Amino acid sequence: MSTRFHLAFPVHNLEKSRQFYVEILGCEEGRSSDSWIDFNLFGHQIVAHLSPDDCSPVNTNSVDTHNIPCRHFGVILEWGEWEKLIQNLRELNYGFLISPTIRFKSKPGEQGTFFISDPSGNVLEFKTFKKDTMVFEKF
User: Fold this and answer.
1) The pLDDT value given to residue 105
2) N- to C-terminal Cα separation, the chain
3) CA distances in angstroms from 71 to 5, 26, 128, listed in the order given
4) What is the rounded distance in angstroms from the CA atom of residue 124 to the CA atom of residue 97?
5) Is 98:92 a contact under the CB 8 Å cutoff?
6) Residue pair 102/114 in contact by the 8 Å Cβ criterion
7) Alpha-carbon gap, residue 52 to 119, rounded angstroms
8) Alpha helices in the chain (DSSP H)
9) b/e map of 20-46 (b: 16 or more CB within 10 Å)?
10) pTM value?
């Protein structure tokens, strides 16, 4: 078994979350109950828990000319997979919080990135690196 991460997060509405993660992001649904749903996010287990009171607005920090949501999660994809996801989101007319862009151009850690949010305001970042060795490279 390869190493995978597990993340649980609050949502306002399970059905809207199911629609977003399955129909928009293409996740496979796993186990579920009346209060949570497991999803396969590119091989990682994420769990939407019905907990409206725990859903809160996200603060931002300035990073490379963008206001980046402080609380977010996501995955690092291969370049082609990242571009395919962008194309799929555009075909579905799904809006970006931060449009696809290349950050840290010509610097260590140069990356393609974009941000979207789910119906409960949870922010997801999808990124890619031209060279996988740059993921943890310092400036």
Assistant:
1) 84
2) 33
3) 16, 22, 19
4) 9
5) no
6) no
7) 11
8) 14-18, 79-91
9) bbeeebebeeeeeeeebbbbebbebeb
10) 0.93
Q: How far is Cα 35 from Cα 66, in angstroms, rounded to an integer?
A: 35
Query: Strands 111-117, 98-103: parallel, antiparallel or unpaired by DSSP?
Result: antiparallel
Angle at 86 between CA 127 and CA 138, to 5 degrees: 15
Tokens 């809006």 sit on residue: 95
Q: Spell out the per-residue pLDDT of the chain, length 139, in tens.
A: 789 999 999 999 999 999 999 999 999 999 999 999 999 999 999 999 999 999 988 898 988 788 899 999 999 999 999 999 999 999 999 999 999 999 888 888 889 999 999 999 999 999 999 888 888 877 6
The three-state secondary structure class of 21 is: helix
All domains of the chain, ordered by start, with CATH? 6-134 (3.10.180.10)
